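## tool: complex_structure
## caller: assistant
## args:
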Amino acid sequence: MKKDASSFFKTIQDQISAAVEEADGLASFKQDNWTREESSARGTTMDGGGGRSRVLEEGAVFERAGVNFSEVSGTLSAEMCEKLVSQKSSLPFYATGVSLVFHPLSPMIPTVHANFRYLEVGEKKWFGGGTDLTPYVLFKEDAQHFHKKLKESCDRHAVADYQAFKNACDKYFYLPHRKEHRGIGGIFFDYMGREDGENLEDIFHFVKDMAQGFNDCYSPIVAQRKDLPYGEKERDFQLLRRGRYVEFNLIHDRGTQFGLKTGGRTESILMSLPPLVSWKYNQQPEPDSNESKLLEVLSNPVEWLA
Amino acid sequence: MKKDASSFFKTIQDQISAAVEEADGLASFKQDNWTREESSARGTTMDGGGGRSRVLEEGAVFERAGVNFSEVSGTLSAEMCEKLVSQKSSLPFYATGVSLVFHPLSPMIPTVHANFRYLEVGEKKWFGGGTDLTPYVLFKEDAQHFHKKLKESCDRHAVADYQAFKNACDKYFYLPHRKEHRGIGGIFFDYMGREDGENLEDIFHFVKDMAQGFNDCYSPIVAQRKDLPYGEKERDFQLLRRGRYVEFNLIHDRGTQFGLKTGGRTESILMSLPPLVSWKYNQQPEPDSNESKLLEVLSNPVEWLA
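## result:
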């Protein structure tokens, strides 16, 4: 499974980077291959592995797009094993996955994030992942398209439950100090297969379907919105909202925290941060504006397919 | 002591805001008074209190300057009491203080942070605080001036130890995932008086001296640097370095974390974030450039008064 998963994730990185470059039309990805030396940063001992980080910056469509593939292994501390697999002893681990965040230049195009991963800790094996959309201007039909595609992928697999994954996504991408969700949601799943290893192959099929369907979820939205005109007002609002993205990733995101705390490659982990961001004191959108309509939806998650 | 401390901190807020407005010459502070309703967010029950938040934005010298005064009280969870006073029971607490961050527009002027606070938890009482400087272009004489003023304040008080506080500052304002310190340091002290309440008055004298001396530490640097010319290169580097400021405050800063997690006023807490920030993948300064000279100092703290 390790080999199948990691080779699949590499292929997905290729497919998705190709689609981004095509959509962008101007910039191309720079790739950094990195390898991990053994390290014993907080709770983990790595005994190798590495990754392929790809970043595209200052494109025509994407101000920054990052797609990471990684495959690492080593030994996990008893403390972390207790958290992950309820066993209070140090265990060998293996993790591979692909993770991406695209920050478009135009505020008319939403930011997207996706992650698909396979983990082994001791005898336990599982998949996790998901994808979610963060718009700066709300187009209902984009949110509906994104969720519809995700539901279709889920519906093709007995192991997947769109509604449960959609709810988990709304719950996960939430900023308690702002009482806001990060975006209009998507799906989020974790520990799939950990308790009952028997259907791991079925779960892998679902993850494959989901990852291969990613371009169909996002690319049509980019195509639809990339030529829309916008002004300073929309751009300013986008920069402010990107501040929330930073707040979520640095304060709450488990992947970011895990990566930074276990001594991962900082530049690859923080690739998810937007290229330009602003904070302004106590900014409140005007009533009935586009901005306040978006905030309404971020405060109260919507059933897009209802 | 509560009354003396909170009234002193209010006066300090006034003195420092007046100096900032004078130095800026264009913008003035907006003030928000806020009160806290009882809340039981994670580990704290507040039974009142509030604060005065002051923000100045888009000034001629300061792109953003925030000075907060607050005074809150309530009951602290057993878990937090164990951390703070090694007593595993829920106890009443009181906290008052003033906290500031100034982000100048010009990259030739350093960002400055300061905080002075008084706390009571059960029978224990203590002061904490400090101030530190984050330059974007290194002027050795600014760092020396800042540290010299701080050392003079410390040297006037038997309870204060410049070298110990300077080392604590270097240690605290550190980003392990970047292997960089946040700036060129300053002083940092905490729990002063907690174990031996007898010299609390002396400690208060020291804190007063330090807070009243703040303008003399920082204002001469602003005056010296504010008319220096700079270009896009310096501005770009400033925006990138501000990213590190955000990373420190959101990932590491105890005050920010404590505030956000106990349900403090988000807009007052995050006033410390810079108005405009950028992240760029794997940016490395040219050898022997001003940028690399600064990074050298941020990687290896300097004894500025040696």
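## assistant note: The interface with chain B takes residues 30, 32, 55, 57, 64, 66, 177-178, 239, 243, 246-247, 250-251, 260, 266-267, 269-271, 273-282 of chain A (CB under 8 Å). Residues 216 and 245 of chain A are 24 Å apart (CA to CA). Handing back to user.
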